[in-house]
Amino acid sequence: MTRTAHRPPLSNLSPRVRKGAGTGGSSPTHRNRSAIERTIAELRRADRLGELDAGALALIRTTAAALDAAEGAYEVAMIGRVHITALAGLLAGHLVEKDDELDRFLASLRSAEMGNSPNP
To answer: What 3-state class would DSSP assign to 80?
Structure first.
């Protein structure tokens, strides 16, 4: 009877090694980095990113690379949580269309708090 070591299945977010085309070697697959770069490219193409997003983009790129390098379910879960939170934070500011009426309402609230009347 041959005994083999039990290997847990790889997470969908963990790095994969696949045979390189025609080389017989292997190269890592960086699916998270590739996906985040495609997302960033689409946001740029839609003119939905600005200079103020630089920090969030750096964090998202870093967590995507960390996900690709993660080993084991615990690392994937911990890094994945930070990655998803950072990505959701970036996208949240860009998913809502500008609402001039809401801006006027919020300005009137701020004026009232300061004791100023919004309408003379």
So the answer is: helix
